[in-house]
Amino acid sequence: MFGFYGHPDGWGSGVAGALMTRTLDRLRAAGHTPVHLWTLREAPRSRRFYEESGYAPTGAERPYDFGDGRPLPQVEYAREC
């Protein structure tokens, strides 16, 4: 599992877009295409960012427990590198 997270102080600065571009470059170079990710269903800012980054929802959903015994619904996104 891989991921990156931006602190709210950096939101809107372009850092997340730069990280996404570099991540996709590395995935493409390693031959990983298509790529997919999961994000919280109730995270409109994250979902908008992924859609603006070329990802589309696949329609798949799953519960994910972050360790507190209260799973939250996630949705899957995918794109070609």
If you had to describe this structure to a student in words, what would you say it looks like?
This protein has helices at residues 15-29, 44-52, and strands at 35-40, 56-64, 72-79. The protein has 81 residues and is of the alpha+beta class. Strands 1-3-2 form a three-stranded antiparallel sheet, covered by helices on one side. β2 (56-64) and β3 form a beta hairpin.
**Helical coverage, percent range:** 25-40%
Q: If strands are numbered along the chain, what order do they take across the biggest sheet?
A: 1-3-2
Q: Which percent band covers the strand fraction? A: 25-35%
Tell me the major beta sheet: 3 strands, antiparallel
Mean pLDDT: 92
Number of helices: 2
Low-confidence stretches: none
Radius of gyration (CA) equals 13 Å
**Shape estimate:** globular
Instruction: Determine the structural class based on helices, strands and strand pairing.
Output: alpha+beta
**Oligomeric state of this protein:** single chain
Distance between the termini: 17 Å
What is the total tally of β strands?
Answer: 3
Features:
single chain, 81 residues, alpha+beta, 3-stranded antiparallel beta sheet
Summarize the topology.
Blueprint: H1 15-29, E1 35-40, H2 44-52, E2 56-64, E3 72-79
Antiparallel strand pairs: 1-3, 2-3
